[in-house]
Amino acid sequence: MTRIFIILISFGFLPRAEAQQKESSTRPNIIYILADDLGYGDVSAYNKDSKIPTPNIDRLATRGTKFTNAHSASAVCTPSRYSILTGNYPWRSSLKKGVLWSYDWPLIKKDQLTIGQFLKNNGYSTALIGKWHLGWNWPIKKGEYIDTTQLSPIDEASTLERERKIDFTKPLQGGPLSCGFEYQFGVDIPSLPPFCFIENGKIIGDELTTQKPNHIVGAQGVMQREWTSEKMLPTIIDKADAYIKYQAAENSNKPFFLFLSLSAPHVPISPNLAYQGKSNAGDYGDFVIEMDDYIGRLMNTLDNLNITQNTLIIFTSDNGAAMQAGDFTTRGLEASTYGSLYKLYNHNSSGDWKGIKGNSWEGGHRVPYIASWPSVIPAGKTNINKISLTDLFATCAGILDISLPDSVAVDSYNMFDAYRGKNPRKSIRNEILYSSANGCISIHKGKWKYIDCNDAGGGLKNQYIKNDYVYETAGQLYDMEKDERETTNLFNDYPIIVKQLKHLVEEYKIRGQRK
Predict the structure, then answer these.
(1) 24-429, what's its fold?
(2) Which of 162, 60, 47 is nearest to 104 (CA)?
(3) Which of 108, 153, 303, 377 could cross-link with 373 by S-S, CB 3.0 to 4.6 Å?
C-alpha cells in the first residue's frame, strides 16, 4: 500500500490535502484556445497594421494580459502540440523533425503524464475538442500488418495503402482519452485523411468513401459522405459551446479544463459564405475573422452563464503562419503560394518578425498569447516575459499550488506570477528553446539568440519576403536587444558566446531542464 501511495504522489496523481479542500473559486475553469498556424501579426491587438480585424481576440486582451515574447516550442504543429500537453520540449519525443502524417501511431507514450491527466487527477472535468494530430492506435484489419514503429511515408499511394489495412468500424485507441481527457470530439488532421469527425475515439457516420474533398490538394482518402471543409470549424465551436454549457448546468460542482484546438486558419482555408469578403486579406483573412467571431461567441456564453470571472482563458497559436492567401483548388497557384498574403494584400502575418512557419527565425515560433482571468489577472496589461507554450503544465500546477516531481513536465515553468503582473521586470525564464521543422534547435538567453544551423531551419520559404538565406557560418548568433529582426549574423564575432550557447543546447538535450 505504501509503495502505491508513493507512486501516485510521484506522478502528481494526488493533490495536496489543503488544495483538495479549497473552494472551487480558487480552482478556475481553464479554456486553452489553440489556433492553428495563426501569425503574430494577424491579430490586430498585436499589429496595428493588420488587414484582419480581430475585435473579439482584442477584447480578450483588454480583459487580461497580452504577452509579446511568447513562443511555441516548435515551428510546426505536431511537436508543438506534444510540448503543450507534456510540458517537455519536442525533441524529447521520438519525433526529431517534421510532423506526423495520416495513420501514424501515438507520439505521446502510454505512461506519460499529460496536462489533461494531471488536471483530471486533481478534480477537473477534462475535454479536448478540435484538431488532434498526435497519432492514434489505428485498428488493423485481421490478417493485415502495419509496422507501427515506422512513420507513414508522406505520399498519397502509401497513405492509401495504410488506409486499406485499417478497420474504421472499430474504436481508435491511444488518442485524447488515453491522455486524461474524459471527452473528445474533432478531427485528426484537417488537411489529411481520414476526413471525418471522431468522437471519443469512434468515427462518426457509417458512410465512408475514398475520394478527395473540396479545398484539398493531393490528399485522397477515407471521407464521410458529404464532407466539406467549411463545416469543420463551426462544428468544433458548436461542440465547445455545448460542453461549456453542460459543465455550467450539470457539473457545476467541478471546474473544467477545455483544450480547444481549432482547425483555423490552417489549410484548408475555407471560410463560410457569411464571412467571405469580410477582411482585406483574402480567404485567409476571412477565415481568421470567422474564427474571431466564434471566440466572441464563446466569451458571450461565459458571460451569460456568469462564469467569466472564474474562468482562465488562454489564447495562442501552435506556431507561426504560412502566409497563404487562399487554397490552390479555389484560388489558384498565386494565392496558395507561401507569402502570397504579403504580395496580394500587403499583409504580413509575421508582423515585423523574420521568417514564417517552420523557420528558426522569430516568425516561425513567436506567437500571440493572451491570458484572461478577470478575478485574478490584471486587465489591459502587456507583459514582456519570455514564455513558452510548454509552460501551461507548470502554470496550472502553480495555480493549484501543487508541486510537480522533477520527472514531469521538465521544460515547463510556472508563469502564474507573470499572469498576475508580479515583478513585471523580473524574467521567470533564464532561457527559452525552440525547434524548427527540420529539428534545428535555437536558444535565447539574455540578449543572445543562437541558432544551431546556417539557414531557416527547414519548413516553408516565403516567396515574396526574402528568407532563403544560407550563411557561410555553421550557425547563427543575433543580439536580440539591438537586432530583434535578426538582420545581422554575429556568429564569427563572438565565438565564446557561440560555444557557450551551443554547449547549453547540448546539455538540455542530455540532462533535461536546468532549473
Answers:
(1) Alkaline Phosphatase, subunit A (3.40.720)
(2) 162
(3) 377
